[in-house]
Amino acid sequence: MTDGTAGAADKAGDTGDTGVTGVAGAGPPADLPEAAVRRLESTAFSSGLSVPDFAACLDLGLQPVALVQGFCVMQWGWYGQGSGYMRGMSPYVGGPQVAGSYSETYRCPHGFVSNEHRSWGQNLEQPWVEDAWAQGYGSAYQRMLEEATAHGAHGVIGVVDRVSSIADTGTTEFHFLGTAVTVDDGPTPAGGVPWSTYLAGQRLTKSIEAGFMPVAVVAALASVRVWAYCMTEYLMEGSMSWGSPTGPHLVEQVSKAHMAVRQLARKHVRQQLAGDELHGATIDVVARELSQGDEVIDCTLRGNRVRRFKDFDPVELPRPTVRLV
């Protein structure tokens, strides 16, 4: 049986009629339906798009070629005196900005009470966290683009980034996923680097219809550490401050820290835009309570960097693919 099978295979190879694509001199049998012939002769691709997004992108002249991804893991530690991560300190909210840092100091209004009394507090930007996050995010993003470039893609659409921390180890995982696409008769991307966007399907169609071309996805993290002083500690733990009447109280130190971290995130993203616009921005704030009113506040701002390339021009409506009558 083995000899007979081998002989049959050799004979099929001689006639060039194996019925299997990808073999020299072979092709689909002549009696296959036209749709099956097209499927067998087409190249394979992968995509992370939903069916509606996939159909909308085809109408735009985008052809999916591959599902691409990038991954990176970053770990950082605390800074010490004299470290390169130490930045000049000056008020950011309501004051001048020096060396890109934010710091505000708070002092006890009660005078000396005891050695345990927290007579001093500060809000401080954490640049070592921001820089490590930016490095990890950028590395994972670049690896996704390198994979897309290897597939000859013009761009990456439907980008999804997942950032997750591993317990309390100071380690963060960055994972990018997107669908690499080519543009029908499109020019080579500037610098050979594919463009990217979180958008896909109808949202991408509407953006291009409005005259905006995607350039890149952008994101930045701002991090502020709150060292509480006595007033903040009392209020954050539910106690009343000394000599204050009953009723609502403004926790000024924490309120200003939240305002500052959002301002810092916008500043970091604005530096990446280089004069372009930011569309579809989303902002996420995570506050981690420590003890005695202390907090760490992290703010992540994401969006699509886009550039206007034409005036509003409605996209031609797609033709129906199914007829009901």
Give keywords.
about 325 residues, alpha+beta, Translation Initiation Factor IF3, 2 domains, four-stranded mixed beta sheet, 7 helices, disordered N terminus
Can you give a write-up of this model?
The protein is α+β, with helices and mostly antiparallel strands. The chain folds into two domains: 1-42, no CATH class; 46-311, 2-Layer Sandwich (Translation Initiation Factor IF3). The protein has helices at 2-15, 34-41, 51-59, 127-150, 201-209, 230-236, 252-273, and strands at residues 62-75, 103-107, 120-125, 155-166, 171-183, 195-196, 212-227, 277-289, 295-308. A five-stranded antiparallel beta sheet has the order 2-3-7-9-8. A four-stranded mixed beta sheet has the order 1-5-4-6. The longest helix has 24 residues, at 127-150. Mean pLDDT is 79; it is low at 1-25 and 86-100.
> Based on the structure, what is the oligomeric state of the protein chains?
single chain
Give the ordered list of helices and strands.
HHHEEEHEEEHEHHEE
For the record, the CATH architecture of the largest domain stands as 2-Layer Sandwich
Count of helical stretches = 7
Q: Beta-sheet strand percentage?
A: 25-35%
Instruction: Name the helicity range.
Output: 25-40%
Terminal CA distance: 54 Å
CATH superfamily of the largest domain: Hypothetical protein apc22750. Chain B
Unreliable stretches: 1-25, 86-100
CATH class of the largest domain: Alpha Beta
| Rg computed from alpha carbons, rounded to a whole number of angstroms | 29 Å
Q: Which structural class should the secondary elements be placed in?
A: alpha+beta
DSSP, total strands: 9
Order of strands across the widest beta sheet?
Answer: 2-3-7-9-8
Could you report the average pLDDT, rounded to the nearest whole number? 79
Largest sheet: 5 strands, antiparallel
Number of discrete domains: 2
Report the CATH topology name of the largest domain.
Answer: Translation Initiation Factor IF3
